[in-house]
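Try it yourself: sequence plus flavin-adenine dinucleotide, in.
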Amino acid sequence: MKYLIIGSCIAAAGAVEGIRSIDPEGEITVIDGEQRGCYSRPLISYYLTGRRTSSQLDYRPADFFAQQRVRIIPGRAASIDVICKQVLLQDGTGLEYDRLLLATGASPVIPPIPGITQSWVNTFYTWQDAEEISAQTAAKGTAVVLGSGLIGLKAAEALHHMGMKVVMVEKQSHILPRLLSPRSAAAVGGHLQRHGLKVVTGHEVVAVGNHEVAVDDGSSIAADLLIIAVGTRPNQDLAREAGLQTDRGIIVDCHLRTSDPHIWAAGDVIESRHIVRGTDEVMALLPLAHREGFIAGLNMAGSRTRYPGGIFLNAVHILGMHIITAGDPETTGSILRWQEGERCLELTMQGQNLHRYIAINIPGISGPLTALIERQVKIPESEWFKFLRNPAIANLPAAYWAEVRRWQDDGSLRCG
Amino acid sequence: MKIQSNSEYCLGCGLCRIYCAAAHDGYNGSVIRAFKKGTPQARAGLIEHQQQSWINTCRHCQDAPCINACITGALQKNNEGIVFIDGQRCVGCLTCVMVCPFGHIQPSLDFSRAVKCDLCRDLAEAPVCVSHCPNGALRLIEEV
Amino acid sequence: MSLSMLTPAFTVERNQDRCIGCGVCVKQCGNSVHHKDEDGFMWVIDKNCVGCHRCAVLCPTQALAIKEFPAALRPNSYWSTSSLREIYAQAETGGVLLTGMGNPRPFRSYFDHLLLNASQVTNPSIDPLREPMELGTYLGSQVSSLGEREKPLLKLDMPIMFSAMSYGAVSLNVQKSLARAAREKGTFWNTGEGGLHSDLQEYAASTIVQVASGRFGVNPDYLNQAAAVEIKIGQGAKPGIGGHLPGEKVSADVARTRMIPAWSDAISPAPHHDVYSIEDLAQLIETLKVATNFEKPISVKVAAVHNISAIASGMVRAGADIVAIDGFRGATGAAPMRIRDNIGIPIEIAIAQVDQRMRDEGIRDQASLVAAGGIRNSADVVKILALGADAVYIGTAALIALGCHLCHTCFTGRCNWGIATTEAQLSKRLNPELGAVRAANLLQAWEHEIKEMMGGMGINAVDSLRGNRLMLKGIGLEQHELDLLGITAAGY
Ligand SMILES: Cc1cc2nc3c(=O)[nH]c(=O)nc-3n(C[C@H](O)[C@H](O)[C@H](O)COP(=O)(O)OP(=O)(O)OC[C@H]3O[C@@H](n4cnc5c(N)ncnc54)[C@H](O)[C@@H]3O)c2cc1C
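Structure, out:
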């Protein structure tokens, strides 16, 4: 059996682990587009702050692929010939496969702003980005970060750590718009401001000049570095050109197979089921990428394991503040809140179902809440009121503990 | 391997947590030193609900969500089935805390990393919570 | 009453250099001795301390020491501190003083005035690790006339059984612990008068069931599933008085087992109302034998009182297969203090006298003799066997093995060790899995020691030890005491 994987990061690592858990023999080949092996994208911000050296960005130990008997081919895939079951690399090499996995991830979106393609403008997405930024920040001037999503925030934090003056420009009315409610965003915004980060919300950058950024209110900001972090888009051109079904991301079935029976896809490049919303979404999240990769790997090796889908979930820490949130970012249910100083917890309920939580500086409680959202356990608001008097694991509603017991008894716990 | 907590005989005394805290973070099991001079942290929670109590500790899941979610590869399973955190790799993002359905994994007291039960894998004897439970309510069971 | 003159009995000393404020003591004390404020300040109310040592044993830093409260009254060898305390208590309450466990007063312990023999030169001692040593024994009537069907016997792998302790007086977990240990070690435990809980039916073959004056839980199944039936006439801690389990301890579970309404007082009358004479006893014994198809040995348990040898003789003639005698150190879950501390006679003397009387009357082999009440260790076992007993019952020692610290407050039902209580939150403190191991360990340890002592005497079977008073010498005893025990003084 010949397995071929395009992409070498998170979903790819999951797939290798999945395949090898069933098939120790099959021949696995990985196309490493970045020629950096299996590294973890989120660590690039730690690289900038110096908590990680460039050799410490690995997601798996350096000898991971060798250990798993995986052949690594540096280079980029240019096209897929689904009839001959062959992938052509940019240098013209052809690689045959019996089973193919697309784990091509996503790329940052570059908004169509005049002047945006200058050398002092960078994305913050790859190890190369990080090295380039690191080279440019020696000047210690001002950095403008476009977008205040997770990546923008992590970039801002890193640059702040490196001594730069940071201005964030966010088009939406509040920061982390996909993650936070307006109220919780205000708390985070305040925290950033207190640390000296400037946050401009509700405004767009309309043009990029020479070390100058023009904002839609007519003002302009002089800057030494501009970071673009306005979102990502799945790398699905290969799939689309090969005639696979795609939408906002590659479309897969519940076994993570694409419309071609010999091709699977996993990670940031796919659309997958949001358990709570019931819709298909592009959820570019590392935990999902690994899990999807793993399950796709199992299925490529002959299993028929279902992928139930996932929910949005994020754990972000920024300048000492811990923000954890999970669920449906667009939920419009009733909000229950608890706050004590810098710590707050916000639960959004749709009837008896928890649809989202936002936990700021109270991370310890988050795991069970995530589980309750994923499993849509019904708990009346009154129970949550009691819990919110002192939100701690030990005070979780009795229904949660009953649920835990049930997971254990009926084995429905996906984690054994 | 995992620790099974039998609420029928759990007294809720919390000795498991005390010995656990003293067994980790370099306190070498000295309870007095850990609690008088240090900032010990137990790797297990004590839950008391409706006259029952039990410890909330790691199940060392087969298909562990924490390992799956870890962004650095710090969370691993060794060949004995113990899910542990490689302290060198952990950056304290707390993604594992977010996905543990039992709320078992917790941030360290300074929030710089995640901490969890490692079944005292560095010690020669059984996990200290098991060996110090005064009423045999905790057991180390081999099956996963 | 506004002013209590009772000073605390104990004081709890907390070593602040060791205390880590973990609060284990606070959670473990069912008597509200230990307290912790929101700010972490730890304080104690000495007055509430009963000296059970639960806190001190569980304290992870050994920060607690329980000491006698230093109430230095003017020295008075007649009016002791405790006699004053008892009066203060009665002056406050107007009630009978209640207590638990056995008589603690400093009466002479004959066990401590008996010495065992050992072989030297003239006969060989035996190494129990190399040579067989028989501790097995049979209880019951050993005589059967020609043509009569064989009398039922109880086979013990060692001459030690667990005393009667009823469910209600002790927790179910105590009974589970003892039942398991008894089954494992090939001996018997005794239900006491509270019936046999359904959870314990699996141990029925290792169980002696009691029929007491309240007849609690007695039915044909109860009698027939057991290994033996014991009629309880009296017990050493409170001869002559009945029992009273207050309604609040009669939980649904206790009620079901006792076959009485829940939350009603369970009264055991002082006498059996159908036993006012030896002849009446004979009828009851016969009734039980018929009810069990003559397949179970019938034991009769009495307290050791003044004319015990005559009573025992009558019991044997009434058909008892086993005569169980409970000495004045025998314990209880609740008794009036004056009764416990002032009634009965020592088990050593009772056994010596009864054994002698039965031999003299030629009825020794018609019944076995079981000694109970105050057996503290394996040497006590060997000595009482040499004085004439076939086997012993241990109660206090078994409870100590399970964690009892002899605080004497069983009657409150708030036993911090989960022993003398039926409160779920307290009784769970005794995990029967651990309890069974501890109780079985005790039996095993004593078994080894008994074999060592017997081997030293050159005896290889417990049968040859029974009534072998030549193996005993008295020390520090008066002649009349030596005579009562049927032994000679050390040196003779
Ligand atoms: C700064 C930063 C912080 C983040 N923090 C978090 C976080 O805290 N939590 C979280 O859940 N997620 C986080 N993410 C997102 C997370 O990194 C992604 O979800 C994850 O990397 C997705 O894994 P993947 O394997 O699907 O794709 P990727 O990791 O993107 O890997 C895809 C690989 O395929 C390669 N590739 C693409 N096309 C080709 C081709 N044609 N030929 C060969 N190779 C190709 C790419 O170059 C890339 O190396 C963060 C991302 C960034 C940038």
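One thing you can check immediately is this: Chains A and C do not touch (no CB pair under 8 Å).
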